[in-house]
Each structure stands twice: as structure tokens, then as C-alpha cells.
Amino acid sequence: MAAVESFSATHPGDPQAGDLIEIFRPAYQHWALYLGDGYIINVTPVDEGPPATFASAKSVFSRKARVRMQLLKDVVGNDTYHINNKYDGTYAPLPVEEIIRRAEYLIDQEVSYDLLGNNCEHFVTLLRYGEGVSDQARRAIGAIGFVTAAAGAFSLLGLLRSRSRERQY
């Protein structure tokens, strides 16, 4: 398996039209789809000022997003990115012409957004594969499920302990 190389605005890679771009923000990954000629398509909060980043806390709670065509270097800013078509082994990519046609149709459209069920990774994988998938969301849902189960177990243990103390007196 080849090493994954990181790129930045000052050290750009060579993405091809239809490639998935994974941008590494300080606390999460943002996803975009490369259109060609330095441009990507991605989703940003509807009412966010400069559309280049999806880094605000507002994006976590946003229920709507705007599809934007932007320069990759502007969206990446000071962060790094990978060309990451990681689902190609599981899903067959659509023909590049269809990916680009579908993407261009959505530019400037308002779309629903949900961090766990319909996020930026779901958006770009739906364009590339015709199937919206997100490992990032799957991991978050798994973590939420684990925390919920752990909280339930600790609550049950606390209840059992308090009942066993009550019996001793």
C-alpha cells in the first residue's frame, strides 16, 4: 500500500477531476470533490460569512448548507489535505463526466445538512459513487453509542450499589 502524501496550498498535489479531497482541520476533517482547474465543490453553512472554511462551531449545529464551487487553495488555507478516494474498493466510481455534471448542477443550491446523517463526506461520496457514506459519521455514531452504553452501565451499577447498601442497614 502506498504512503498517503499530505498536500497544502503551498505544496499542492495533482488531483484529478472527480477525486475526493480530505482536508484536515484542527478538530475534524472536511471533504470536497475536485472539479478540475484548481476548483472544488463542497458544502458550507448557509449563513456563514467567508465561505472558505467549515470550521465554525455553527457548522456543527447547522441544518442547512450551501453548495459552493471554490478554489482548493482557498478552502485548504493553512491546513493540509489528502487526495482520498478510499471507498473505490467498495463502491465503483461513476464516470467522471457524470460526477462533474451532477456536481455542477448543485452549485449555489441550498441542501440539508446533518453532522451524523448528511455531512460533507456524505455529500461528496454521493456525487462520486451515487452512495452517500461517511466513516467519520460512523465513528461518531459508534462513539455516541459507546458513551451512552457506558453511562447506562454506570447508572445501573450505581443503582445496584445503592440498593445493596440499603439492605445492609
TrEMBL record:
Swiss-Prot/TrEMBL GO biological process terms: N-acylphosphatidylethanolamine metabolic process
Organism: Opisthocomus hoazin (Hoatzin)
Any one Gene Ontology cellular component term annotated for this protein: cytoplasm
InterPro entries: H-rev107_PLA/AT, LRAT_dom
Designated name of the protein: Phospholipid-metabolizing enzyme A-C1
Domain LRAT per the UniProt entry, residue ranges: 20-136
PROSITE patterns given in the database record: LRAT (PS51934)
PANTHER family named in the record: HRAS-LIKE SUPPRESSOR - RELATED, PHOSPHOLIPASE A AND ACYLTRANSFERASE 1
Record key words, sorted: Hydrolase, Lipid metabolism, Membrane, Transferase, Transmembrane, Transmembrane helix
Pfam families, per database record: LRAT (PF04970)
Similarity comment: Belongs to the H-rev107 family.
Listed GO MF terms: N-acyltransferase activity; phospholipase A1 activity; phospholipase A2 activity
Segments crossing the lipid bilayer: 140-160
